[in-house]
Write a structure and sequence with these properties.
Blueprint lengths: L1 H16 L22 H5 L2 E2 L2 E2 L8 H9 L3 H10 L1 H5 L6 H15 L14 E5 L5 E6 L7 E6 L19 H12 L3 E7 L9 H4 L2 H19 L6 E5 L1 H9 L7 E5 L17 E5 L31 E2 L17 H10 L5
Parallel strand pairs: 5-6, 5-7, 7-8, 8-9, 9-10
Antiparallel strand pairs: 1-2, 3-4, 4-6
Helix pairs in contact: 3-9, 4-6, 7-11, 9-10
Length: about 350
């Protein structure tokens, strides 16, 4: 009975403190945005060169890629102009078309909070204005890269805040830029906020509901990279984003999965992720995530600490990391190790 009581207390603590990048704040319940973007019905009703268009809800990314391969340039451009939200979010479509489509879709919202994303030099690979907004941005040349990394962030991230002013190299876009600068021209880095993240600290951050929805989207996103010939990616998974990666692990073709500042990955061991990828873990000495109980009880909490010896992940040095978001700070041991993993230098 005493053991049960301790478990209940630990689970209650998990509800109180499991969270993401914002730290100690109240949480608001979020509704996961899923399914194809607005405009899918009009897309399904259209044709291109006499061919039916692939259903965004059911066509695989490889089927989408084959469809676009059969279209001439004029037909492709017409689809971009007529259905920018669908083309911009269609995994398996050529990246250059998605960039163009998303510039149109962003401008069409007329919302100032998205205006900077529509700049000509931004490479927006996905943009969904529903809810708080989702976005994926590419740094580097995705279509010719020898290596690809995907940043999967945690709580309090969305299309508005993914590139917001904060400490250098601490937001999704900042992390991506820092890794890109450390690796060089042969690597493309994608900041992926392709799921509804929790807000603050609350039940959304303590349970797996949003992570489960995000894992489906992450698996499809990585399949889309494969469909356009991109190298198998490295996933860098921060905070609640590591829960997403843990649930998606067996459904992706990632070469490496790196969890940092993680509350758990919904698995007892690295082998329990059932992934073909190598699994890495990092936690800095002042990261408050260390105070989160590593439990999973009645759906609350995210399980074992990925940095523990028993979990079995490879350790990433992080002794000089400051706080919960300092893992990509220039000059840190963690950033240097992340770059080596991203470039396949560590075997």
């Amino acid at each position: 009975m005493r053991r049960f009581g301790r478990t209940m207390v630990t689970a209650a603590l998990a509800v109180a403190v499991v969270g993401g990048t914002a730290g100690w704040a109240s949480g608001d319940s979020q509704r996961a945005v899923t399914g194809p973007p607005p405009g899918a019905a009009a897309w399904r009703a259209d044709t291109a060169s006499g061919r039916a268009l692939p259903d965004p809800a059911s066509a695989t990314p490889h089927e989408v890629a084959r469809f676009f391969d059969r279209l001439d340039e004029a037909a492709r451009r017409e689809l971009v102009r007529s259905h920018p939200l669908v083309v911009g979010n269609l995994d398996g479509a050529p990246p250059s078309l998605r960039y163009e489509a998303n510039r149109i879709a962003i401008a069409a919202t007329g919302e100032a909070r998205y205006a900077s994303l529509g700049a000509p030099d931004r490479q927006i690979l996905a943009f969904d204005p529903r809810g708080r907004g989702q976005v994926a941005e590419v740094f580097g040349d995705l279509e010719h890269a020898a290596h690809v990394s995907v940043i999967v962030p945690g709580s309090d991230n969305d299309a508005t805040h993914h590139d917001a002013r904060r400490k250098p190299a601490s937001g999704p876009a900042g992390m991506a830029r820092a890794l890109r600068a450390e690796t060089g021209e042969s690597t493309a880095v994608i900041a992926w906020i392709g799921y509804t993240t929790p807000v603050g600290v609350g039940l959304d951050a303590a349970d797996g509901r949003l992570a489960e929805a995000g894992a489906v989207r992450l698996a499809r996103f990585t399949a889309g990279l494969d469909a356009v010939g991109a190298p198998d990616p490295v996933l860098f998974c921060h905070s609640y984003g590591s829960v997403v990666c843990g649930l998606a692990a067996r459904h992706t073709d990632a070469t490496d999965i790196v969890a940092f500042g993680s509350p758990g990955m919904r698995a007892g061991t690295a082998a329990g992720l059932r992934a073909g990828a190598r699994v890495w873990a990092a936690r800095g000495p002042s990261d408050w995530i260390a105070d989160v109980p590593n439990v999973e009880f009645a759906g609350i909490g995210h399980g074992a600490d990925p940095t523990s010896a028993g979990f079995g992940a490879r350790r990433v040095p992080a002794a000089d990391v400051q706080g919960h978001t300092g893992y990509f700070a220039p000059g840190t041991q963690s950033l240097a190790a992340f770059a080596a993993i991203a470039e396949g230098e560590i075997r």
